[in-house]
Write a structure and sequence with these properties.
This protein is an alpha/beta fold and 320 residues long. It is built from 10 helices and 8 strands. A 5-stranded mixed sheet has the order 2-1-3-4-8. Helix 6 crosses helix 8. Keywords: Iron, Iron-sulfur, Metal-binding.
Length: 320
């Protein structure tokens, strides 16, 4: 157990009597996986762990716990989701206690499995800018830079933007060396026809399980989602790439100006479809048009939540 995990446990132990539950992480079925931990007792607290292997955005659980006193362990990127939930009044700040931890990147489990050729993993040890993976067939030392989640290469928040308590871990330089090409970079280099073919190919593999929607911490209209609504009837259940692409386009548009690029949609996809790139492309457009990034300021209003007669960077009125 690392020193900052011990410090985190100590801070939570002090606050636990005043809280109904604390959201954190613990090990999953093996050392390569993790699972959310709902802490209500000291015995639960002993299971807490933290580090680059714990990737879930715990803020996704906050709306369902509205009205209760909740503690949450959060990294810089996930704190943006908390801010967005506050902006949309889906949670109340007075009921949330934030235990912040610094982060130099979260590990992409799929990338690790590819790097060890799918061998059964026995143990994983993170050490600065590398991780050591022991399998049934030997030991592999991997550069952290090569196995990070896509979102980590563009992340600018190593520490939470808001927090009540803070644990500073000894972190490596953020994304050491040269970062690999992301999906969005690849899409930028394509012609429009190539991009459409790219998405058609990926959507052909989509099984419409809606894991991307269910994992999204800001997709809060699941009970009346257009994907399953018959009034209005925007989508049918036909198994075609274009119908599935239509759902992803709607999901991306509904989260435009709200998406904090936490990557839960892409991480949850069982088919490995890079759906986060759609949201990143829209966010870049929102940044250009409105000079706004989601989840950076709890006091600001998302641009698509307001109306201005004239926007500084939208010139259609001037062209009339």
């Amino acid at each position: 157990m690392t020193q900052h995990t011990q410090e985190l446990r100590k801070l939570i132990a002090q606050e636990l009597p005043n809280l109904d539950v604390v959201l954190a992480w613990t090990h999953g079925h093996n050392s390569l996986t993790s699972t959310p931990l709902f802490i209500t007792t000291q015995e639960d607290l002993e299971k807490l762990d933290s580090g680059p292997m714990h990737v879930q955005n715990l803020a996704a659980y906050l709306p369902s716990l509205k009205g209760r006193k909740v503690g949450i362990v959060t990294r810089g990127c996930d704190s943006r989701t908390i801010i967005e939930l506050l902006q949309e009044k889906l949670i109340e700040r007075k009921n949330i206690t934030i235990f912040g931890i610094s982060c130099s990147g979260a590990v992409n489990i799929r990338a690790v499995r590819r790097a060890v050729n799918g061998e059964s993993v026995r143990s994983v040890q993170a050490d600065g800018d590398s991780i050591t993976v022991t399998t049934n067939h030997g030991t592999h030392t991997l550069r952290m830079q090569d196995v990070l989640m896509d979102k980590c290469y563009t992340c600018t928040n190593q520490t939470p933007i808001i927090h009540d308590h803070m644990v500073i871990a000894q972190t490596a330089d953020h994304v050491p060396g040269d970062a690999p090409q992301t999906t969005l970079d690849a899409l930028d280099s394509m012609e429009p026809g190539e991009r459409f073919a790219f998405w058609e190919e990926h959507m052909d593999r989509c099984i419409r399980c809606y894991a991307c929607r269910n994992a999204c911490p800001l997709c809060v209209c699941k009970d009346s989602c257009v994907a399953q609504s018959r009034d209005p009837h925007w989508l049918d259940q036909s198994d075609t790439p274009r119908e599935k692409l239509m759902f992803q386009a709607i999901h991306a548009l509904h989260s435009a100006g709200r998406c904090t690029e936490c990557g839960e949609c892409e991480r949850a996809c069982p088919m490995g479809i890079p759906v986060l790139a759609m949201k990143q492309a829209l966010n870049r457009r929102i940044k250009h048009l409105f000079d706004y990034q989601a989840g950076m300021d709890a006091q600001s209003t998302p641009p698509l939540f307001m109306f201005r007669q004239q926007e500084e960077n939208i010139k259609e009125r001037d062209a009339r």
